[in-house]
Amino acid sequence: MKTIAYQLFLSQEEVAQLTGRKFRNLQIGTLKLMGISFQVNASGWPIVVRSIIEPVKTNKSNPANRSPK
User: What is the CA radius of gyration of the chain?
Assistant: First the structure.
């Protein structure tokens, strides 16, 4: 049941789309070549933490709004 609003890990379908590979051994090899950090679960599938590939939101202030020092 996938009712969680935010998934911590990429789904198997997302990993397949990311790597362009359907089979887990080829996905693992491609992730290594791409330099993407992952772990292998007990079933032998690569598990990728979503935050590894998603851009990080920053709280940088707009330089135009800074007051001169």
Answer: 17
